[in-house]
Fold:
Amino acid sequence: MDYRKSTASANTETRDIMQMAEPVGNVYEMVMIISKRANQIAMEMKQELDSKLQEFASYNDNLEEIFENHEQIEISRFYEKLPKPTLLAIEEWINGEIYYRNPAKEKELF
Structure:
C-alpha cells in the first residue's frame, strides 16, 4: 500500500459503527479485523522508516560527534504527518479492501 496517496484523513471522525459492522454482522469481529490490519500497516511503516533512517546511523561511541541531520529530521516529520495506521485500516475497511476470513465460521459450515 502506498501511504502517501491514501485518502484517509489525519483527524478522528465520528463513524456509524453499526453500519460499518454490516459485512461481518458483529462489531467485535470488525474491530478485531481492523486492529489486526492496523498492526500490519504499523509494522510496514516502521520497517520502511527504519530502512530510510538506517542510512543516517552512526556507529561511533563518541558523544561529541552527534549533530543534527536535516534530511533525517525531514524524513521523521513526513512520517509523523501521515495518517495513523488505525485510520488507514478503517479507510481500507470502508472501501472493502481488506480480505478476512474466520476459520471458526468456516468449520461450522462443514
Remarks:
- The mean pLDDT is 83.
- The helical segments are 17-20, 27-53, 70-81, 85-95, 103-109.
